[in-house]
Specification:
single chain; 300 residues; 8 helices
Length: 300
C-alpha cells in the first residue's frame, strides 16, 4: 500500500534554492515520488511512497524554518501514482500573480468539515469554487458558483467583474486542499469583503471526514496524480486523464466519438493538429508496450 501526503505551508524561506537539493536527495533515498514546490512564501505539493519514506520526508520538512506545525492530508493507493520526483523552485507555491497577497498576515474564517454543510446551506451565504474549470466539471458542492477560470491567476479579474453579484452576502470558498483559499480569502478581505470563510483542509478533508449519506458534495474531486480523482473516503474515482491535454476524462467521455486513449478527448478534440496527434499516438504505443513488459513509461 502506497501512502500519499498532500501538503502546503506558508512560511518565509530566505533562500528556497538552498532547500532544494537536500530535499530532492532525501526523497530519492527514501523512494518517495511526486512533486514539491519551493518559493519564498513556503512549500506545496503531493508526495507518495512507503509509510516510512513519507514519514522521513515530512519530518525533514517540519524541520525547515517555520514549518514545525506543518499539516497534511493522507490517503492511500494500491500502486505508485507518480512516475518521478520533482522538487522545483517557483515564484509562488500557488500562482495568483498578486505580490501583495500574504496569507501569513490574514485569512478568512476556517470552517471544519463537520460545520461546512450548515454554513453553505444558509440563505445569506454564497459558495464559490476557487478551482479551475476542468476540476469543477467533474465535481463540486451543491449550489456552488463556478467562476469558469482556466487558472487561479484569473480569479482576481473574475471577482472584479462579478463582485456586485455578492452584495450583502457572506462568502464561503473552497478548493482541493485549502491552499488556494488561503490566498483567495486574503484577497477578498483586501477588497473590503468582511465575512469570508473557507473549508479547512479543503475538499479532501471533507471527503475524508463527512459520511457520504450526509454529504453535499456532488461528483468526484480532481487530484494531481495518477488517480485523477477521488470520492468519499478518498477512494479512487472513475475518471482518467487525457494523454493530450491532461484534463479529466469521465466514463461518458470515453464513449464519445472524439475520444482516443492517450490521444484526444471531447475537451481537446479541436486543440491539436495532426502532428501533435501522431506524437501522442506514438507515446501511447510506447506506454502500452512498457505496460505489457510490466514496466512504467515515464511519458504517462
Amino acid at each position: 500500500m502506497i501512502t500519499i501526503a498532500a501538503l502546503y505551508h506558508f512560511t518565509r524561506f530566505a533562500d528556497p534554492a538552498a532547500l532544494q537539493a537536500p530535499l530532492r536527495l532525501l526523497c530519492a533515498q527514501q523512494g518517495v515520488k511526486g512533486s514539491l514546490l519551493l518559493a519564498g512564501e513556503g512549500i506545496n505539493g503531493t508526495i507518495a511512497g512507503s509509510k516510512e519514506g513519507i514519514a522521513a520526508v515530512l519530518g525533514h520538512i517540519r524541520s525547515l524554518p517555520g514549518c514545525a506545525d506543518l499539516e497534511w492530508k493522507e490517503s492511500f493507493a494500491q500502486s505508485m501514482p507518480f512516475g518521478r520526483m520533482k522538487v522545483r523552485l517557483k515564484r509562488e507555491i500557488v500562482t495568483m500573480g498578486l505580490p501583495d497577497i500574504d496569507p501569513k498576515a490574514r485569512v478568512g474564517h476556517y470552517v471544519p468539515p463537520a460545520d461546512w454543510n450548515d454554513l453553505i446551506s444558509q440563505p445569506d451565504v454564497a459558495v464559490i469554487d476557487t478551482r479551475n474549470d476542468y476540476e469543477v466539471a467533474i465535481g463540486t458542492f451543491e449550489g456552488a458558483v463556478d467562476p469558469g477560470t482556466r487558472s487561479f491567476g484569473e480569479f482576481p479579474a473574475w471577482w472584479e467583474a462579478n463582485k456586485d453579484r455578492f452584495h450583502n452576502k457572506r462568502i464561503a470558498m473552497f478548493c482541493t486542499g485549502g491552499i488556494r483559499c488561503e490566498k483567495s480569502t486574503n484577497f477578498l478581505l483586501s477588497q473590503g469583503v468582511e465575512d469570508v470563510f473557507h473549508l479547512r483542509g479543503g475538499i479532501l478533508k471533507y471527503l475524508e471526514e463527512v459520511p457520504a449519506e450526509q454529504s453535499l458534495w456532488q461528483g468526484e474531486c480532481f487530484v494531481f496524480d495518477a488517480r485523477v480523482s477521488v470520492g468519499h473516503g478518498l477512494q479512487p474515482g472513475q475518471n482518467e486523464s487525457c494523454g493530450a491535454c491532461r484534463r479529466p476524462v469521465t466514463p461518458e467521455d470515453r464513449s464519445h466519438p472524439s475520444y482516443e486513449k492517450g490521444v484526444s478527448c471531447p475537451a481537446c478534440a479541436q486543440e491539436y493538429g495532426p502532428q501533435d496527434r501522431a506524437r501522442f499516438r506514438e507515446r501511447q504505443k510506447q506506454m502500452d508496450l512498457a505496460a505489457a513488459r510490466g514496466a512504467v513509461h515515464l511519458g504517462g
